[in-house]
Amino acid sequence: MKLNGADAARFLRTPDPATRAVLLHGEDKARTALKRRELVAALGGKDAEEEMRLVRLGADEVRRDPASLQDALRAQGFFPGPRVTVVEDATDGMLAIFEEALGNASPEDATLVVTAGLLPARSKLRKFFEGAAAGILSIAVYTDAPSAAEIDQWLASRKIEVDPSAKRRLQELAQDLEPTDLVQMLEKLSLYMWNADAAAGLADVEACLPRTIDSDADDLAAAVAEGKVEETCRHLHRLSARGVPPTTLCIALERAFRQIYGIVFHPGGVEAGIGALRPPVFGPRKARLKAQAQRWRPASVERAIRELTDTDLTLRSSSRAPDMALMERALIRIAMMSGR
């Protein structure tokens, strides 16, 4: 049987205990692994691995020894409870192994969860799981951003309460972050809010954002815009040590200062300029951006953008000057314009 959309999401949350086997296949291996973890937890419970009720087999191992799959499905553990056997990275060439294992299965056997890469409609493995008897299912894992219902489920499973502003921010982040990164962030948020009396707010979500090169570049841009020379140099050296090219940083700084330019030159003033940003900004980010914009006069912003453009052109030219030294001097000059 083939499950799609809401039916697939409902099954992954609360699978039928009578399920014998499930195929999860999709283009994005990380997303498929995330769905597999959710399904295994729902089938076997959170303690399945600790209680040795979960068996993992690699595709190569099953190819070398097809009997190992049947042995894993039939094996009885020391602890009571539902058992799950996972086979990862399956291919069409393993169809006969799955047919035999499931053809000889009994109600006492473990539930089989199989993951695979992108399988076209003509795939023999996919056709088998989609057309098999009751209790054998196929679910395609797409690259769509997590829905609001999925985010609510992830929050509930981690016992995290959030206020409306935090929920809106999480839904925005779901459009930009990989689902695995978003789930890791929620794990961090659950620890951050441990024993907290109130629901998580926007500031709490912002404090748990994953650190990326983009977020570090944003910190560098903020330090420059706020005129913090020492902090500017510290962020720049850290990014340089991570191997980030100066041209990448220059592009990030230009983007940040063009944003400030749009706010400063907005006919309705700074507040209206920030309100016109898309995507919108909230909470501490909004307050910090407002403070930055208020430090810059229109002429100074234009000079800063010209400085960044000239530096970018020099970096891309045949100049023999050290790239990071050029970048550092330019950023120090721009930081010293702040508030003047």
Features:
single chain; 340 residues; alpha/beta; Rossmann fold; Helicase, Ruva Protein, domain 3; Zinc Finger, Delta Prime, domain 3; 3 domains
CATH architecture assignment name of the largest domain: 3-Layer(aba) Sandwich
Largest sheet: 6 strands, parallel
- Overall tally of structural domains: 3
Strand segment count: 6
CATH top level assignment of the largest domain: Alpha Beta
Order of helices and strands: EHEHEHHEHEHEHHHHHHHHHHH
CATH topology of the largest domain: Rossmann fold
Radius of gyration using CA atoms only: 26 Å
Instruction: Kindly report how far apart the N and C termini lie.
Output: 68 Å
How many individual helices?
Answer: 17
What characteristic shape results from the CA principal axes?
A: elongated
| Corresponding CATH superfamily of the largest domain | P-loop containing nucleotide triphosphate hydrolases
Question: What does it look like?
Answer:
The chain is an alpha/beta fold. The chain folds into 3 domains: 2-141, P-loop containing nucleotide triphosphate hydrolases (Rossmann fold, 3-Layer(aba) Sandwich); 148-207, Helicase, Ruva Protein, domain 3; 213-335, Zinc Finger, Delta Prime, domain 3 (Up-down Bundle), CATH 1.20.272. The chain is built from 17 helices and 6 strands. It has a 6-stranded parallel β-sheet, with helices on both faces. Helix 4 (67-74) runs parallel beside helix 5 (95-103), helix 11 packs antiparallel against helix 12 (229-241) and helix 13 crosses helix 15 (283-294). The longest helix has 19 residues, at 246-264. The N and C termini lie far apart (68 Å). The model has no long low-confidence stretch (mean pLDDT 86). GO terms for molecular function: DNA binding; DNA-directed DNA polymerase activity. Belongs to the DNA polymerase HolA subunit family. InterPro entries: DNA_pol3_clamp-load_cplx_C, DNA_polIII_delta, P-loop_NTPase. This is DNA-directed DNA polymerase. Keywords: DNA replication, DNA-directed DNA polymerase, Nucleotidyltransferase, Transferase.
